[in-house]
Design a protein that fits this description.
Order of helices and strands: EHEHEEEHEEEEEHEHEEEEEEHEE
Largest sheet: 7 strands, mixed
CATH topology: Nitrilase/N-carbamoyl-D-aminoacid amidohydrolase
CATH superfamily: Carbon-nitrogen hydrolase
Shape: globular
Low-confidence stretches: none
Radius of gyration: 18 Å
CATH class: Alpha Beta
Structural class: alpha/beta
Number of helices: 6
CATH architecture: 4-Layer Sandwich
Strand content: 25-35%
């Protein structure tokens, strides 16, 4: 599986312009044999709003059907779907969304077949768009012809249980569209590779760059291997990074340091009976 992160700036409140740029990069990805193209959080819309009314004005009407399938979407989203179909590329991209239930922070997995599936950000900081949206209520893993893909969005990475659930559900790769601003270097440089290593999965984090609403975004997109090693890393400007991933490595959850002498199972050593406080138990 060849993956690419398209670290880019975003035009606030102009989904058509952003979609056109995303579609151009999908075409580039297809010409280079990339199977999975990843774009930043809220790449279609922008993120930095200070009031609920502004969040509503920013949001795209994307409606979800059964099994996370996108049932209805505006032209900006459909343009990306069509680009994926033309160029044989899977893509993950973020946006501010709205439906009959209200506002949400979403990411879509679009496939060359035309299929689109929606993930809603689960863990919300008190910042920008996320101050005005409802959290998602599921951590799905999507079966694709490339492998099993799980999605988290930005702050979801900070909660270790989210990545662990995706790994337990069989994810080969966790894709993270993100908007890391100044001050988030620790997440970019440390938390992302640790989540890959502790779950023995690939992790693909795509951040944005530029300035919006008084925030400057730091870039530092990265692709990390199943041992947490850096496979590709971006700087602080617009940039594309690529890496080759082998899903078979993520499906082998046994670590062998010295054969027969020093081996361990990533999940086999877990003690769920001791983890009651994590899921709200009293720890007794």
């Amino acid at each position: 599986m060849k993956v690419a992160c398209f670290q880019m700036d975003v035009v606030f409140g102009d989904p058509e312009a952003n979609a056109a740029r995303v579609a151009e990069r999908i075409a580039e990805a297809g010409s280079r044999g990339v199977g999975l193209a990843v774009f930043p959080e809220a790449v279609l819309t922008g993120y930095c709003v200070e009031a609920c009314e502004a969040a509503r004005a920013l949001a795209l009407p994307v409606r979800e059907g059964p099994k996370h399938e996108v049932a209805e979407a505006p032209e900006s989203v459909l343009a990306i779907r069509d680009a994926c179909a033309r160029h044989g590329v899977h893509a993950v991209f973020g946006f501010a969304g709205s439906d009959e239930a209200g506002l949400y922070n979403g990411a879509i997995l679009a496939e060359p077949s035309g299929r689109m599936r929606l993930f809603r950000k689960v863990h919300l900081p008190e910042l920008g768009l996320d101050k005005f949206v409802a959290p998602g209520n599921d951590l799905p893993v999507f079966e694709t012809e490339l492998g099993r893909i799980g999605i988290l969005v930005c702050f979801d990475l900070r909660v270790p249980e989210a990545a662990r659930v995706l790994a337990l559900r069989g994810a080969d790769v966790i894709v993270l569209p993100t908007n890391w601003p100044e001050g988030a270097d620790f997440a970019a440089d440390c938390i992302a590779p640790v989540r890959a290593a502790e779950n023995k999965v690939f992790l693909v984090a795509c951040n944005r760059v530029g300035e919006e609403g008084g925030f400057r975004f730091i870039g530092k997109s990265g692709v990390y291997g199943v041992a947490g090693q850096t496979l590709a890393k971006a700087g602080c400007g617009e940039e594309t990074i690529e890496a080759e991933l082998d899903p078979a490595l993520a499906r082998n959850k046994r670590n062998v340091a010295i054969p027969g002498r020093y081996e361990s199972e990533v999940f086999g050593s877990r003690r769920p009976d001791l983890y009651g406080p994590i899921v709200g138990g009293d720890g007794a």
